[in-house]
Specification:
The protein has 372 residues and is α/β, with parallel strands linked by helices. It has helices at residues 3-17, 22-34, 48-57, 75-79, 84-87, 116-128, 156-163, 177-185, 197-208, 214-229, 236-252, 260-263, 277-309, 316-346, 352-371, and strands at residues 38-41, 59-60, 64-68, 105-109, 130-133, 136-139, 144-149, 167-170, 195-196. It folds into two domains: 3-209, 3-Layer(aba) Sandwich (Rossmann fold), CATH 3.40.50.300; 290-371, Methane Monooxygenase Hydroxylase, Chain G, domain 1 (Up-down Bundle). Helix content is 56%, strand content 10%. The strands form three sheets. Strands 3-4-7-1-8 form a five-stranded parallel beta sheet, with helices on one face. Strands 2-9 form a two-stranded parallel ribbon. It has a two-stranded antiparallel sheet with strand order 5-6. The radius of gyration is 27 Å and the shape is elongated. The protein starts with a helix and ends with a helix.
Length: 372
């Protein structure tokens, strides 16, 4: 089994275990492949820490660190106690064994309760992947940090930390009864598909090499422009960091290049307040699928025109006039469809589904011609 096949199997196993968490699982795996961080907002008991722990169990050789932060948490709890031996040499260095600076995957619960004595060190660690330890500046192996909170940050000093989480998800308790019953009846998982740390690093490199077609950049610029009109503004850095995330998402889906389908995942990247997410989702959908919906609307018009022409007419003359009118309208509709398809091709958008709709309109046209 290749590493990518193992990753696909891990994805399937996680989705069987964590119900109604499909997008979050894809986000977590994409974050691992692109070395980004994930924020999960939701009430206690929604399997936030369990997912991060399960993710780490799937990577052989990966260190995992988990901690619940409070306003009274100390740096020693997160970064390790101060080395007394180093103090004897006038070096304020910490013993970081089994602490955050040595973790590949970490989960910090109630992360926005971090106090200022911890905040700056966490920021440097997750952003630059370095830890200032006494006289040394040490590189840290951190791949992905999962942060969890019941609420959004309110203090300005926490907003910088909030912005470091490229992916943001809002979770709640299981909604559907049948999935809730599945969760209650599910046996403990006995076997887990695993990948080695080396295999994960190799897949990260493969994901980074995935082509990014030019029309994807143009689509991202279109999304940014439309969201700005709605006062939803993400930083330039956030858009730039979304590129390797899109590559990772495409790799996870088994694609050979980034496609417009991957752009839908930006709904978890571009909002600042959870209330903005539906608007972000709708904007992306309208930009990427609006042309399909326009052609579909033309199909509905064509059906209405056909039904109008085929209704009973009092005289043959009225029927002939109706058929001529229908033929003219269908010809204009098909011309409009061709314009939409050409524009979509210019923008690099997929036109397979639009082509199928066009064929149905042409069938209606042929049916009307046969009736003449």
């Amino acid at each position: 089994m290749t590493p990518q096949e193992k990753l696909k199997k891990i994805r399937e196993e996680l989705k069987q275990t964590f119900l109604e968490r499909s997008e979050l699982i894809d986000g977590a795996l994409s974050a691992l492949l692109s070395s980004q961080h994930v924020l999960v907002i939701g009430p206690p008991g929604t399997a936030k820490s369990m997912l991060a722990d399960e993710m780490c169990r799937r990577i052989e050789g990966a260190n995992y660190f988990q901690w619940l932060l409070t306003r009274f948490s100390t740096p020693e709890e997160i970064f390790g106690a101060v080395s007394l031996r180093a103090l004897e040499q006038d070096d304020y260095r910490r013993v970081t064994t089994h602490k955050l600076p040595e973790a590949h995957i970490a989960f910090l619960d109630e992360i926005f309760k971090a106090n200022s004595s911890i905040l700056n060190a966490i920021l440097t660690l997750i952003n630059e992947r370095i830890f200032h330890n006494g006289r040394e500046i040490a590189r840290v192996p951190l791949l992905t940090l999962f942060g969890a909170s019941n609420e959004l940050p309110e203090d300005d000093e926490l907003m910088a930390l909030y912005d470091r989480f490229l992916l943001r998800f809002v979770v709640n308790y299981i909604v559907e009864d049948f999935r809730f019953l599945r969760m209650l009846e599910a046996p403990a998982q006995k076997e887990r598909t695993r990948i080695s740390l080396g295999e994960l690093q190799a897949m990260q490199a493969e994901a980074r090499d995935l082509p990014m077609p030019g029309h994807i950049y143009r689509s991202i610029a279109d999304i940014r422009r439309e969201l700005s009109k709605k006062n939803i503004v993400a930083s330039d850095r956030r858009y730039r960091l979304s590129l390797p995330l899109l590559q990772a998402h495409a790799y996870l889906a088994g694609e050979r290049a980034v496609t417009e389908n991957d752009l839908f995942f930006l709904e978890h990247v571009l909002w600042r307040d959870p209330g903005e997410q539906p608007e972000v989702r709708a904007t992306i959908r309208e930009l990427l699928l609006g042309y399909e919906e326009e052609v579909r609307e033309l199909l509905y018009q064509s059906r209405e025109i056909r039904d109008y022409a085929l209704r009973p007419w009092e005289t043959a003359d009225e029927r002939t006039k109706a058929l001529i009118e229908v033929h003219t309208k269908l010809r204009n509709i098909l011309a409009r469809v061709d314009q939409i398809i050409e524009k979509a091709k210019t923008l690099g958008r997929p036109v397979d589904r639009v082509g199928a709709i066009k064929e149905e309109i042409e069938e209606i046209q042929q049916q009307m011609l046969a009736t003449f």
